[in-house]
Amino acid sequence: MENLRMEEVLKKYFGYSSFRPSQKDIILQILRGRDSLVVMATGSGKSLCYQIPPLISGKTAVVISPLLSLMQDQVMSLKQRGIKAEYVGSTQMDQTVISSAECGHFNILYMTPEKATSVSSKFWSNLQKVGISLLAVDEAHCISEWGHDFRREYKQLHNLRGFLINIPFVGLTATATEKVRRDIIQSLKMKDPYVAIGSFDRPNLFYGVKHFDRGDSFVEELVREITKHVANAGSTIIYCTTVKDTEQIFESLRAAGVQAGIYHGQMTAKARQDSHRSFIRDELLVMVATVAFGMGIDKPNIRCVIHYGCPKSLESYYQESGRCGRDGISSVCWLYFTRSDFAKGHFYLEESQSKTHREAVMQSLMAAQRYCSLATCRRKSLLEYFGEQVSFTNCGNCDTCTSSNKARERDMSEEAFLLLTCIQSCGSRWGLNMPIDVLRGSRSRKILDKNYDKLQLYGLGKKHSSNWWKALGDQLIVHGYLVENVSDIYRTVRVSSSGLEFLRASSTAYHPPLLLIVTSEMADEEEESAHCKVQGDFQNLASEEYKEFSETEAKLYQMLLGLRERLARSTGTAPYAVCGDQTIKNMAKIRPSTKARLANMDGVNQHLVAMYGDEFLLHIGRLSSELDLPRDGEALTVQIVSTRKVPSNSERKLAPAKFSAWKMWMEDCHTLTEIANFPGRAAPLKEATVAEYILEAAREGFSISWSRFFKETDCQFEILLEIQSAVAKVGSTERLKPIKEELPEHVSYMHIKAYLTMQKLGVSLDEIKGHEESCKPEECILGTSSGGANVCGSKHTRIEESEVEDTHPSKSLKSGTGEDNTMLEATESRILELLQNQNGVSLPMIMDHFKGSTKEQVVNLLNFLEGEFLLYKRNDLYSIM
Ligand SMILES: Nc1ncnc2c1ncn2[C@@H]1O[C@H](COP(=O)(O)OP(=O)(O)OP(=O)(O)O)[C@@H](O)[C@H]1O
Question: In what order do the strands lie in the sheet with 205-211?
Answer without folding.
Answer: 205-211, 331-337, 302-308, 235-240, 286-289, 260-263
